[in-house]
Amino acid sequence: MSLSVIGIIHGIGFFPQTTARPISGHWLSTPLPCAIFQYFMWVLQTMQLLQDLVICADRWVAHLVPIWYHKNSSVQKSSLATLVVTIWLHGWHMPLNILNCYTPMEKRFGCDGTAYPQYRAIVIAVVSYAPEVLIYGRYPVLLILLWRRRAQKLKVRNARVSCATSAVLSTNTAANNGGQVIYLMTLRGLRQEFRNILGSVFRC
C-alpha cells in the first residue's frame, strides 16, 4: 500500500512538470520551483526504491522467523518501517535541496544539476546504490532458500503419504489373511460335522 501511495504522489507531482517543461521551462529558472522539481525528481523516485528495500526486509523476516512474523506482523509496523526509511532518505537529501535552493542558478548548471556534485554523489551512493545492492543481491538468495524449503516440505509430505499407504496396505493384508483363516476354519468345522453325521448314520 505504501508503495502505491508513493507512486501516486510521484506521478501527480512529477509527470505534469516533466510534461510542461519542454513547452515552457522558464518557470524552472528560479531557485524555489527548481528545488521543488528536484525534490520530485530525486527524493520521491528514490522513495520507491527504498520501499522495495522495506518489502525485501519484510520477506526475509517472514522466512527466517515465520512464527514470530505471523504473530507480530501488522500494518502499523510496516508503516513504521516506511517512516524510518523516509526520515533516513530526507536526512540525506534535504540538506542538498536546501543548498541548491540558496545557490544562484548560474552556478548550478541548470535545474538538472547541482553546485555540490561530490555531496550528491555520496547521497546517491548511500540512498540508491547501496539499497539496490541489498535488494537485487539478496532476492536470488531468498529465492534459493524458498526453493529448498519447498523441496523439504514435498519430501516430508511424500514420506507421510508413503507411510500412510503402507499402513493401509498392511491393514488390508491383515484383514484378507484373517478372512482366509476364518474361511478355512469354517470349512474344517463343516467337514468334521459332516463326518460325525456320517459316523452316527453308519452306527445305526
TrEMBL record:
| Residues annotated as domain G-protein coupled receptors family 1 profile | 1-204
Where located?
A: Membrane
Which Gene Ontology cellular component terms are annotated? membrane
PROSITE patterns in the cross-refs: G_PROTEIN_RECEP_F1_2
Q: Which UniProt keywords apply?
A: Membrane, Transmembrane, Transmembrane helix
User: Any idea what this protein is called?
Assistant: G-protein coupled receptors family 1 profile domain-containing protein
The organism's taxonomy opens as: Eukaryota, Metazoa, Ecdysozoa, Tardigrada, Eutardigrada
